[in-house]
Amino acid sequence: MIDTSALLRLYLADGPLPAALEPAMAQGCSGAATLLVPDLCLLECASVLRKQVLRGTMTSEESMALLADLLLLPLRTVAATELVCDAFEQALRHSLSVYDATYLALALRHGAQLITADGDLATAAANCGCHTAQ
Prior knowledge:
Elements: H1 4-9, H2 21-30, E1 35-38, H3 40-55, H4 60-72, E2 75-78, H5 84-94, H6 98-110, E3 114-115, H7 119-127, E4 132-133
Parallel strand pairs: 1-2, 3-4
Helix pairs in contact: 3-4, 5-6
């Protein structure tokens, strides 16, 4: 279970990689593990890439190529409709955005490790007893 903040660290120099990220990606790419993400993850990635283009830190061609690479990753997406009620509940409980809480809801539903570069999300996950890696 990988959130947008962690996933994009593979491509953008925005801080240190979460320790569990590269091993999880290797397992996912080899088929030894399932890499779960809510379907909104790809939209969030596209939104971050758009901001990079607007700031002039990346060209539109570079961002499109990076987005194409993201789409090739073996990510198993879960529809937001399956998570919205749980995400809303977690958002209220932990003062998270509903978007961030969607990752927590998905991790809790599947008993999955949550790999994130977001400190608030990692804290909320730890408070729920969800195994997290930052």
